[in-house]
Amino acid sequence: MTGESDIGWLPVLETGPRPVYLKIVEALADARSNGRLQPGDRLPPQRELARSLGVDLTTVTRAFSEARRRNLIDATAGRGTFVTPGEPEEPVLDLRMNIPPAPVGLNLPTLIRTGIEGLLKRSSAEALLSYHPGPGSPVERAVGSLWLAEAGDRPPVDRVVVGSGAQALLTAVVLSQTREGDTILADTLTYPGLIALAGAARRKLAAVANDGEGMRPDDLEEAARRHGARVLYLNPTLQNPTASVMPEGRRRELVRMADKLELTVIEDDPYRRLLAGPPPAFLNLTPKRTFHVATLAKCISPFLRTAFLAAPDPLAAERIAAAIRGTTMMAPPLMTGLACEWLRSGLAGEIAAAVRTEAQARQEIARSILPNGFVASESGLHLWYPLESQLRSAELADIARRRGLAISPAEEFAAGQEFPNGFRLALGATPNRERLKEGLESLASILSGAPDSSRPKV
Predict the structure, then answer these.
(1) pLDDT tens for residues 59-115?
(2) Cβ neighbours of residue 346 under 8 Å, at least 6 residues apart?
């Protein structure tokens, strides 16, 4: 129907909580996907479309604006609005990027600006403009020790290492504790950064089975012996992607098994401060076996690309520092300096508490909109939605993408060939609660329209 004005691609707009303008955009995206609309097809004028649908002009104008942002349509002065020939842009509602939401009652950009200005006034230019190779300055390591004390006893400063984010420290641990070809044990669904790191460093990953309480000790023993593995990676608190919190009893069982098998434990712990009373960390339960990594990026802001590591002993900390010198060289002095200022003053804790409050509000929104069946914590940044279906989560993610939503399918987290079907939703990246509501309502519509066999377990 190129060059013609037609509204046959529009379904009847059923009543429901989802905004009408999004229903129009989603119908447009579906029509492009199934061929009902072709590149170059002309859409009716906005006033005509509004009259046909029985909605006000503002609703249609907003729908067209959203569709243009997604590269679904384009307008030519004097000619009209046409379906674009290119591929749709990436979704505009991000439920994929797992970052903390803007803290309640605090203006983070202003705090960053004033914090940097104050730091520049109080610090010597030479210190901020110089290389800081090694595990960090004595002051930075001391502040890091205080932050790590949240996970248990305060570690000695000579066991603490400062890094430019958790990924840099995880890389240093893997390079210092394993060799090319070695196997790292991990959950069946695990942090994608570990998967990417293992591939880049030519290490292997072996998936260990889980039950309702977390990684199974019996399967850990079997996998460790089968692969000759010496290193175990765990993300036990608000696990990414499943949002589970491993109970203390299971943690102690895994500690006993790690002792029996003489395993080194890598504990990735970015979300601990989002919980009011988390179980004890592996750093506290088995400090002589554990490399514990705690980043500020997930509980304060990705702007503070600063993380702290507690090593089992001073020699292990020096080996980590050597690996850092061979990869990222050092943590950026200005960013690390600001992080330490905020930690010393207590502002970091205040921001983390405000982030936790906003995360709680967003989890409440998710509970009010989504069907039953998802796994989440009261104040976590993400949730996990298991699917019992022939439809794989990657296919569902593609459907969501065409509706303007970005979600993370299970395939992105798989450590092996067999893994649970489901997807992760991140609640922090949307700019405000209203946009989050729109995204979740759209997703709920997708789930309700799926075949019975693909609906989530309740």
Answers:
(1) 888 888 888 878 888 877 677 888 888 766 555 689 999 999 999 899 999 999 999
(2) none
**CA nearest neighbour of 242 among 440, 408, 450, 356:** 408
* Spatial distance between the Cα atoms of 458 and 271, rounded to a whole number of angstroms: 26
E strand or H helix that includes residue 76: strand 73-76
| Residues paired with residue 207 on neighbouring β-strands, in sequence order | 186
Residue-range definition of the domain harbouring residue 442: 94-101+354-454
**Which of 317, 349, 381 is at the close of a domain?**
349
Q: Give the separation between CA 273 and CA 293, rounded to whole angstroms.
A: 13
- pLDDT by residue (tens digit) across 197-220? 999 999 999 999 999 899 999 999
pTM: 0.81
Task: Residue 180: count other Cβ atoms within 10 Å of its Cβ.
Answer: 9
Domains contained in the chain, number: 3
Q: Report yes or no on 15 lying in a domain.
A: no
Q: How far apart are CA 127 and CA 5, in angstroms?
A: 66
User: How does DSSP assign 196-243, residue by residue?
Assistant: HHHHHTT-EEEEE-EETTEE-HHHHHHHHHHHT--EEEE--BS-TTT-
